[in-house]
Design brief:
It is a single chain. The chain has a single domain, classed as Orthogonal Bundle (Arc Repressor Mutant, subunit A). The protein is 44% helix and 24% strand. The protein has a three-stranded antiparallel sheet. A two-stranded antiparallel ribbon has the order 1-2. Helix 1 packs across helix 4 and helix 2 crosses helix 3.
Amino acid sequence: MSKSLQFSDLDGSVKEIPIPRISGALPESAVETLKTIVQHESGVGIPDLADELDRAKSTVSRHVRQLEDRDAVTSEMHGKTKYVIPTFSGELRYQMEMK
């Protein structure tokens, strides 16, 4: 992920911030999955996501991999369950899809 420097004129601090990656189209089949993930801001497990979307866990897992490849989501393991969290880029993509 590319980064940029942000300068604060209030306290003179400089910090590195990520530049969102929103170029390139998302696979049509993964757009609904992204929309559902973004609605769960703090993250959602793949089994719950599959139930909510009424899709197979393998299908949802494939969509999550496609979204991870495009920096739209990140994931982490909690025990044996993979939890998916939207990134800033994913939230921007969601906003673009809603228009």
